[in-house]
Amino acid sequence: QLQLVESGGGLVQPGGSLRLSCATSGFTLANYAIAWFRQAPGKDREGVSCISSSGRSTNYAGSVKGRFTISRDNVKNTVYLQMNNLKPEDTAVYYCSADRRPVGCSYIGMDYWGKGTLVTVSA
To answer: pLDDT for 27-38, tens place per residue?
Structure first.
């Protein structure tokens, strides 16, 4: 059964850090690019960061560039999102998604989705 399961969310103070994990099963992660999205209350879902199947190519939204780092371990079938210097505007449900593509990464045409993990940044 194909699954993407996010974990690592929680409540953190502004300026703090969290590391999200996206554990995958039921498919060969090495064949898929992975993207992280987030959806804040009352807002549309937005792409945050993505990483190619090999890990050699990454992309970040302007609002998180320099603060977030995406990485992957194809042996452990897990993708990570390290989030530093968190701000209240980072509060959202974070989703990981998979896209079967040989090169690069994108926020369009995702094949599979997780159910999300809530990140709350508040004093």
So the answer is: 999 999 999 999
